[in-house]
Design goal:
two-stranded parallel sheet, 10 helices, 42% helix, binds NADP nicotinamide-adenine-dinucleotide phosphate
Length: 301
């Protein structure tokens, strides 16, 4: 039987991946600090996986990224470099890296973004070093396949959400933070919520469960191509907030926009043709449905 090791197993995606791959080994930073070469060597020696799903990353929201650009760059470059290097040296058969659509060029001539556009411009300022760090893993995996004949691949997911995300509002992702904000406002009888920026940026969001489904299909069917993963729908932040208010039965709340705070990248919507070709069964839940489920779970915690 295949020995599957999942790094970042205690995070949002790891939590949902467990429902598809319950027998894989899920590790966190408490098991091995993947920025340390010694630790990565020990991890491969101890667990001898033949498949690695590399979820671990230094991940955070806009403010965290802007305040700690050096840490985001170094920790992600170190982890990714070591994970791919020692996967190859330990003859790991399958390695799946996880990038992010926020690593695409800040501005392109046409949308949705296709995979071949990855290196055609610099990432947006608000996650510049995280973006470059993640791009480096794409270069490393492609180069490893080219030079050493491995069949490693990577996916480029859009923003994710779902229960299991971090509780700290400065670190959790937009939709989960929004749901938490709505929950707090309802609980405390407030009449409004305030969001960063002017509400105009365009986004795709995917429930972490649907992303975990894609990872599972890649492992199960031994898919070796690399592609974007996102829901087809593209909404403005204002539309997302309105959908979320409806899904949480909180349409009475007024939405304020704090324009003194950054918007982040204006748009980064990606094309999912390659994904649909590789996984025709991909049929993610709607944003409304995903928010409703997440809200109910958060409310009942
Ligand atoms: P997450 O919830 O922030 O979890 C991060 C995971 O990485 C945790 O298990 C954490 O372990 C582990 N980790 C961090 N630093 C580590 C270190 N030095 N050594 C070992 N493990 C370390 O992340 P996620 O949201 O599940 O994201 C999974 C992957 O998807 C990441 O590669 C991320 O870049 C990518 N992605 C996420 C999103 C999103 O919206 N969430 C969007 C696009 C791409 P501890 O729990 O012990 O700290």
């Amino acid at each position: 039987m295949s020995k599957i090791l999942v790094t970042g197993g205690s995070g949002l995606v790891g939590k949902w991946l467990k429902t598809f791959l319950p027998n894989a080994l899920y590790l966190s930073s408490k098991d091995f600090d993947l920025t340390s070469q010694e630790s990565v060597i020990q991890m491969y020696q101890k667990h001898t996986p033949d498949t690695v799903v590399h979820l671990a990353a230094r991940v955070g929201g806009i403010v965290d990224n802007m305040q700690n650009p050096y840490d985001f760059f170094e920790e992600n470059v170190m982890m990714n470099t070591l994970l791919v290097k020692y996967a190859r040296m330990n003859n790991v058969k399958k390695f799946l890296g996880v990038l992010s659509t926020c690593i695409y060029p800040d501005i392109m001539d046409s949308y949705p973004l296709k995979e071949h556009c990855l290196h055609k411009g610099e990432p947006t300022k608000t996650n510049f070093s995280y973006g470059y760090a993640k791009r480096v893993m794409a270069v490393q995996i492609d180069a490893c396949n080219e030079q050493y004949g491995t069949n490693y691949n990577y996916v480029i997911p859009c923003n994710l959400y779902g229960d299991g995300d971090k509780n700290d509002p400065s670190k959790s992702h937009f939709v989960t933070a929004l749901i938490t904000k709505i929950h707090e406002a309802v609980k405390n009888n407030q009449q409004e919520i305030t969001l960063f920026g002017d509400g105009s940026p365009l986004r795709q969001f995917l429930h972490a469960e649907d992303f975990a489904f894609v990872i599972n299909e890649i492992i199960k069917k031994n898919i070796t191509s690399s592609f974007n993963v996102a829901a087809e729908e593209v909404y403005s932040i204002k539309q997302i907030a309105e959908i979320a208010l409806k899904a949480c039965d909180a349409s009475h709340l007024k939405i304020n926009f704090d324009k003194s705070k950054p918007n982040g990248q204006h748009r980064k919507d990606v094309c999912i043709n390659k994904l649909k070709k590789a996984i025709p069964d991909f049929n993610p839940k709607s944003l409304y449905q995903g928010v409703k489920e997440t809200y109910n779970n958060i409310k009942n915690e």
